[in-house]
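Complex record, two chains
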Amino acid sequence: MDPLSWTGQIAFLNPLMMLTLAALGLSILAWMVLSAVLPENRAINSGAAEMMASGPRDWVASAVRYAFLAVIGVVLAYLILGLILDTKAGIIGALARQFLPVWIALVLLFAISINLKRKLGLYGKLFDSPIGMIGFALVMFWVFTGFFGAFDMIITHDPLSQLSGLKNKVPGTPLPNPEEGQFAWYLLGGDNLARDVFSRMVKGSWEVVKIAPLATIFAFMVGITLGLPAGYFGGRLDTFLSFLANLILAFPVILLFYLLVTPEIVATGLPQYMAAILFAFPLIFFGVLINSRFHTQPQKNYLWLAVVLIPLAMLYLSLINEKGSVLDIAPRALDFFDIPGGILVVFVSVVFVNSPTVFRIVRGLTLDIKTRDYVAAAQTRGERPWYIMLWEVLPNARGPLIVDFCLRIGYTTILLGTLGFFGLGLPPESPDWGSTINEGRKLLSIYLHPAIPPAMALLSLVLGLNLLADGLREESLKD
Amino acid sequence: MNKLADYDGPILEIDKLSISFFTRLREIPAVMDFSVAVQPGEAVGLVGESGCGKSTVALGVMQDLGKNGRIVGGTIKFKGRDLAEISADELRDIRGNEIAMIYQEPMASLNPAMKIGKQLMEVPMIHEGIGEKEAYQRALEVVTDVRLPDPERMLNSYPHQLSGGQQQRIVIAMALMSKPSLLILDEPTTALDVTVEAAVVELVKDLGKKYGTSMLFISHNLGLVLETCDRVCVMYSGEAVERGSIADVFDDMQHPYTQALFRSIPLPSADKNAHPLVAIPGNFPLPHERPPGCNFGPRCDYFEAGRCDAGDILMENVPGNDRHATRCVKFKEIDWNAPVEVGEEKEKTKPGKVVLKMDNLKKYYEVAANALFGGGETKVVKANETLSFEARESETLAIVGESGCGKSTFAKVLMGLETATEGQILLDGSNIEQTPIEARDTTTVSDVQMVFQNPFDTLNPSMTVGRQIIRALEVFDIGENDRDRKQRMLELLDLVKLPRAFADRMPRQLSGGQKQRVGIARAFSGGARIVVADEPVSALDVSVQAAVTDLLMEIQRNEKTTLLFISHDLSIVRYLSDRVMVMYLGHVVELGDTDQVFSPPYHPYTEALLSAVPIADTSIQKEHIVLEGDIPSAMNPPSGCPFQTRCRWKSEVPGGLCDIEVPPVRTLQDGHQIKCHLSDAVLEQMTPVIKTAAE
């Protein structure tokens, strides 16, 4: 087998790509210069439609648009030709082919969503904003990659198996003696333990996709459950909770992480106690949510409480209970699963670090919303404070919270990367992006390729989340 | 820079102007075929309900329609020059220099980080390039002209140090700095209190005369337009429907909408039993759902299918009147002087037993000087001072006063959101003044309910209408199960005359009036016996106000509810209330039957209030009483009588008693109470503020 080049038979697209990229860069530069120099258009009078299509400003604007479309077109050409030609189109072709399930899923998702966008509320409006669409596509690309990767669909090799002779080999290196049915190349090269970089990146995306949103949800539960009463009641409670939040925010995060994984600290059970407290918040949140809503109808109340709280309580017990550790309180029959101590620490630290910020946002929103007349109306009909907070205030704070949720998944992803980079939490052989970057870093001056793919993956996912949040914010402000 | 050359035609000439806003889904026409001319020195009023496009016209004149707005037809000529053809540089010169605009919210027009003087001086320094000294002189002159006390100190202060009325005066001063030829005022007094509004309107009128400025006065208040303008243009749903001189439009109206508008506002001749208001049926059409032909057609009494909905209707001149035009195909056939069809005359309800009694109620707040550590001196704000009155079953008691008079605090104490400092509130003979709402039983809570002021805020935007009413029913323990409550909710929707389908709507799909109806349904869901209505209609459009007011009255009549109607609008108070209580700075200054309060002898404050309220009736003559200054802060009330700082009768009281002593409550006759030092002899001399001119 020959080594694969990057583009193989579709190398003819490379000069085209260079050309379009250069055009895009130049037109953006010209656009920036011109918009600083030329005065604003006055698009108000009747002839405005024609006026808008003339003048150097408008030429440049359309130039930027066309150059951007051209770049997109060339990228699409790479992908489609790659899909058809597979390994004949080099590494890019092979990658395009490997991601086939993701492409299909993305196209289906977008086709359905765009068709139904008028019926889908805020999610549908997202498809009116190009920024939001790009962000959503990037995010969903990694979500699908993680999802299919978890079923071993996209990867070419086992992420943990080492093949001799492929240590630190460059992208496109063929396997020395491939067996039947084995993929014949390391598409993105091998790392310093001769594992396939591409497969590790794909597997790593699952680690990120499963931990980051979940950890963010926990952080939101904690932030919301504390932020609402702080904003609503104010006074001493607010002063105390805000002080606490500031204290946590002022604490050096990295030091905290190191402390949490220190064996002596783990032995005292501190992370587990913290987990026991932090993970109790969803229980409190849902309990209060249901009780405040149905307390006038006891039967319904108990039914709902039972339906929601019993499974949650079982999950909670299984989550915090660990055999043989300081927290071994639940009977064996109720301890369904154990999560590795490392993951628990990751969760605890992410929730611990993120919830004060969520707390502040929720508190601020509550301070604003509690002055509205419908809150006063609820008060004058004798509603309890928690009903007002959870059913009158919280639903109306959802806009900014959804946007922040997207952004915060991004931060959490980076935080996971940071944790992995320091080798905290996750097991050392874990393929998550942070750990992979850290390993690749050691030989960075000689071998660049093991560190680049996970770094680019992290970058594009966080970028996607930020763009998605931007798009959501922009669209939620429109009519 | 020079002003445009002298020009003696109309200052502003808008001809067949059409403005549209472009959204993602469609083009929304905001203004269609709108024409108006403003002659030099003339004040033209632009009247209409919210959403009729009057502010869009103003923005169109300023050529400031934003990204989505565009002029799609017609021309705007300023001093004979088409504004669409003027370059951006010239336009910048015209704005602020030749055309100045005054907006509703004064604080939003002033830069909070800049001293007043500097902001004022900027105007001529930019537009005319004059020196700092000269600009300062000019600023001083203008600030004196807008009758602000101590002009030099004013120039040296920041906007937040001034009261709302003073801020608006500064904005007016700023607009006058460059001596513009056209002044656009967009609801300039809506954010101000009535007595302050009266003073500002007076000022604008005088300044218009002094500077010879033409004015385009935008308002929803017909009374204000009557007081300020020479000519008026009535707008409805993006079109001008009637245009003419004040006298022609007010007394010889030629459009059904204008007529309906006048019939729906509470003029002094209206009476809730004998001459009830006539609400305009239906709703204002949304901009993209306008009917074919006449926009007012579906709501018009004179509608004739085949003619009124046949095609575009153009403005037509009314023969015999000066520049009087109307957009109605049938105006020559309609008998404009036909008397209003009086609906069934309703019997005046007899007040029943006393349900609510306030006795010497006091509410003081302690405000810590240092909020963070709670130390230092505390200041006492006396929000309510010795409030005593009784309210009977099926009686309407109006509580009148301007902002800061303590009426909202009183409502809070009554509702149990705050507890009283002293005195008692008796509900059916039992004390509730010290029971916070959490400690009240369900019956007490559902007995005393409230209707809120702002329709856009009164409903939770993320819950369906039905769900919100059902929630109230749940809390009040009404109905056995969900089906019962759903049934009751639908009945409540019937009660407030909303279609049952509204149960599944979200509040954003409802108009302001409809939301207010839902608010009323919610308040009555527990069979409320006392309803506190906190300015329930003041944020609604005139034509909707009448309908909501009538609804409240009708429910009250049927349910024998005691209505505590909080308002600053004396016209509507006179229309619907049985008794009136006038409050000023926490004190009840006058209390009595509606007739007693609205006729002399008055408390001096009531007198000023009555004079300040604009009345849209040319046959009414008012005595002009303009109160000086602003309402004092409740933090730092004046010594003695709370009203002594602004009272015009103060000199009639011997011995400076007003400065020293809070006047005692005196009962004049039949329970007419008044809190004033004036002697009976002086009170006898008072003449009515509002007189109907001899026919």
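Note: Residues 267 and 313 of chain B are 31 Å apart (CA to CA).
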